Amino acid sequence: MKKRWMTLTATVLTAAMIAGCSGNNGGGTSEGGTSPGTEGGSGDKPVELTFWGDWGGEGQVQFETMVNAFNESQDKIRVKYVLQQDMITKFLTSATSGGTPDILFWDRWRTSLYAPKNVLHPIDELMARDGVERDNYFEESLKELTYDDKLYGLPLTVDARALFYNKTMLEEAGLEPPTTWEELATAAKALTKWNGDKLEVAGFSMSDPGLFNMYLQQAGGQMITEDGKTSFNNEQGMEVLSFWDRLMNQDKVYKIGFEQGLGEGTDAFVTGKLAMHFTGPWMLSTYKKYGSELDFGIVPPPAGPSGDQASVMGGFGLVIPEGSKHKDEAWEFITWWLANKDNAMLWAQTSLNLPGYKPALEDPFFADDPLWQPFLETLEFAKIRPQHPGYSVMEVDGLIPNLELFIQNKQSAEDTLAKSQTQGDKLLKDNEVVE
Amino acid sequence: MSAINKLERHQARTAYLFIAPTMLLFIIFMVIPVVMALYLSFTNYDVLSRMDWVGWDNYRRLLDDSLLWLTFRNVLLYAVIFVPLNIMVSFGLGLLVNHAWRGVKLFRTLYYLPTLTSAVAAATVWLWLLHPEFGLVNGLLSYIGVTGPAWVAQTETAMMAIVLVTLWQSVGSNMIIYLAGLQGVPGHLYESARLDGANRWDMIRYITWPQLRPTTFLVSTMAIIGALQLFDQAFVLTQGGPANMTKTPVYLIYQQGFNQLQMGYASAQAFVLAMAILIFSLINMRITKAEESVI
Prior knowledge:
The structure holds two protein chains of two kinds. By secondary structure, chain A is of the alpha+beta class. Chain A has 18 helices and 15 strands. Chain A folds into two domains: 10-159 and 314-379, Periplasmic binding protein-like II (D-Maltodextrin-Binding Protein, domain 2), CATH 3.40.190; 162-311, Periplasmic binding protein-like II (D-Maltodextrin-Binding Protein, domain 2). Helix content of chain A is 46%, strand content 13%. In chain A, a hairpin with a 2-residue loop joins β9 (193-195) and β10 (198-201). The longest helix of chain A has 32 residues, at 2-33. Chain A is globular. Chain B is an all-alpha fold. Chain B has one domain (59-294): Orthogonal Bundle (MetI-like fold). Helices cover 73% and strands 0% of the residues of chain B. Chain B is built from 13 helices and no strands. In chain B, α4 crosses α7 (158-183). The radius of gyration of chain B is 24 Å and the shape is flat. The model of chain B has no long low-confidence stretch (mean pLDDT 91). Chains A and B meet through α1, α3, β10, α17 and α18 of A and α1, α5 and α12 of B.
């Protein structure tokens, strides 16, 4: 009798677990899958579109503001924003198993990796049909959304790093914001304060060796060649490293690890422990919060020894996955947002991002603001990262580790460039597009 | 005779029924994915567009992948420091809180508490504590006149920082395991040892430690597996830097698979990692089981 009870219990448990398990699976697909608008495809019912993004919190509110404004502007299409924390992984699985969204928030540099896999929908025909002008966007930002002469999306935001400086500190030292490397080094040295072997105020941040790309272009160089090889083991690369060596080891304007782990409230620039650093428009709203406590200014990145100006353009776009069943409607939403000055401005003012749509940048909101203006200037000459699918790996695993050794004075400039070249070339080759 | 057989068969059937749920889950979520990963490691699978058989290509590429071997070197170095320290500290803590003295429960709780925090959150806080100029650790060091290093940013100390943080977070649960083991050591063994004139240290060395061999085996195996799969704390603390010193295989596998869409190659890397874990677990098994049990 007892045994029978046990058998029964075990059976029930097993059944329950199987049920629970498959139940979860079902939940998983319906939650993320969203087979878009299968029920609303025809008739009078509005078409339902799904828009995936990985911005939560404030970003989610900003996206939803746009989505709601679009939904109210017409009654044929209903867009729904779905927050996907792990968006790219989710997109990977949905692209093969169905249930892709109709609009995807897209980090533009990923295009060169994903476009060859035919999971994004080219929009050239739609552009031509609706007469959307390419001239309204930065050519560089479109280039980043292009693969094999096909355009895969429109730019939502544009950004580039510029030099942020603490006005109060520069005024006290009687300095003007630097416009050249030479002035940058002089100012950085003058603003640095050491107390014995404790760094109290860093004149200039050297925390991110990943900015090598920008410095190299300021020195007149390029990261990789047309045929996909690194091209920094040369005079220009050397120029950058000797400049870094001067800042780091001779003038000692910075100490490694100085900014590591400092969150928003303790940001070294906010707390007056850092006088100047390169960062992008994404920091503006944070810094503005501190109002009069933090008096800061922005200038375009200082020019290199031969007067070359450079910055790296980045930003996001909106793309239409190939799996979408409502590409025309998705396109309508995208153009409403990204090819219309009023809506682009609504987006810009809601999110405090520089919109990808140029006519919106001419609005006094940006053009007359001394904090936005330097970015507009910088964007005119900023260039995107090289579009090699192995570029970021080359940078992160090949170049930056060697640069870190150099900055810490553990590897000579010659070795640094030579090793970065060998390791970088290999990584580029291992990660190139295979058709 | 046949009645006993019948009973045994019946019991066996019941037993299978009982382990069925676990086995089912194990097969669905472990066995099938592992077999699939093995298959994928022989393809050029990119998740999106292709999955063609490429034979041993991925494994050949592995041989030449200096970064992968560097990450293996990193985690091995980490394991060599981390695993013995982990065992010593958690065993020591277990001994300390084994006896009933006033406030022992409080200490047990305190030592266990770090285990409950999320790895990422804890690492973020530690990043603060280890800050070169404003961190608590270097602040304390400066009282004794030592200028502390930039812990997570310098090549010399980055790995030590990760060992420190992961140790802090993992000794608590191992302490509990040791504590359970200690409570199970029969009291008569100590009693007879005392009669034979053994001192405290002798008792730990010749009774407690050998008695806890199964526990040590469990703790060390889990620690080795955890060490070779190091990822989250290392990622938050150093992002693999400085100079690739703290990059780990799991980081590389993730990057290769999900960021570079070379899932086939990433599967091959993952298999090498799995093999490494298996080998080191076997070695560990030999070492821990080397001595004959006391009883």
